[in-house]
Amino acid sequence: MSSSELKKYAIIVAGGSGSRMQAAQPKQFLPIGGEPVLMHTLRRFHAFDPTMPLVLVLPQAEVKTWQGLCGDYSFTLPHQVVVGGTSRFQSVKNGLAALDQEQDGVVAVHDGVRPFVDNAILQAAYNKAFAQGTAVVAVSLKDSIRRVRGGSSKAVDRSAYRLVQTPQCFRLPLLRRAYAQPESPLFTDDASVVERFGHKIHLVEGSFKNIKLTTPEDLLLAEAFLQQEKNQPSAEPLKK
């Protein structure tokens, strides 16, 4: 079986608040380019593979808000909404439970507020996970870094470190087994869950454009990225 024949899935986790964004509503619902961030994110995956099942994990309190937004913006892209848990671990676990329990495939877990993942990154991540079981998108550091201990700091080699992004892709049976483990405070992302399960994590080159919208300054970048894409007629149009 080739990577193109293996079923692809995506779990989009959108449980953030608007605290660091200094917004009155959750950041995944804030508008960029005239519509909520989350709609842009879902559309990226649908444009990559229109047959891919999309599972959107939301807090219980935000489900009605999302349904209302879908009506307001005539957003009809197929996706399944699942209620998240009290932690990211529980939310991803709930998303996994919504997928076909008997099938193999590759599943991507992605932040709902990363709306600029592109086809090249998605293709590389799904292919790597198909071949080696895991594929975590990451980028090199651009700035110098220092390790702080107590009252002193020391320069360290930035080439030995990576900034982790999403999507994080895994063979579906592997991720299911990994998420059968008891939850641990050490689980900061899906890669840490799978690594604790004893599986090696493989990295895929990401992009500095694949930002996670967290602060008000990120919204300015997002609008600039959308304008840049709009001004590139050669770019493949996203499907609505």
Please supply descriptive tags for the structure shown above.
alpha/beta, globular, Spore Coat Polysaccharide Biosynthesis Protein SpsA, Chain A, two-stranded antiparallel ribbon, 240 residues, 11 strands, seven-stranded mixed beta sheet, 7 helices
**Termini, distance in Å?**
31 Å
Number of strands: 11
**What is the 3D shape?**
globular
Strand-pairing-aware structural class: alpha/beta
What amount of the residues lies in strands? Answer: 15-25%
- The unreliable regions are none
Radius of gyration: 18 Å
- The CATH class label is Alpha Beta
Number of domains: 1
Question: Mind summarizing the main beta sheet?
Answer: 7 strands, mixed
Number of helices: 7
Reading side by side through the largest sheet, how are the strands ordered? 5-4-1-6-10-7-11
CATH third-level topology: Spore Coat Polysaccharide Biosynthesis Protein SpsA, Chain A
Helicity, in percent? 25-40%
SSE order: EEEHEHEHEHEEEEHHEH
Q: Please state the average pLDDT score.
A: 92
CATH architecture: Alpha-Beta Complex
CATH superfamily label = Spore Coat Polysaccharide Biosynthesis Protein SpsA, Chain A
Pathway: Isoprenoid biosynthesis; isopentenyl diphosphate biosynthesis via DXP pathway; isopentenyl diphosphate from 1-deoxy-D-xylulose 5-phosphate: step 2/6
GO molecular function: 2-C-methyl-D-erythritol 4-phosphate cytidylyltransferase activity
Protein name: 2-C-methyl-D-erythritol 4-phosphate cytidylyltransferase
Keywords: Isoprene biosynthesis, Nucleotidyltransferase, Transferase
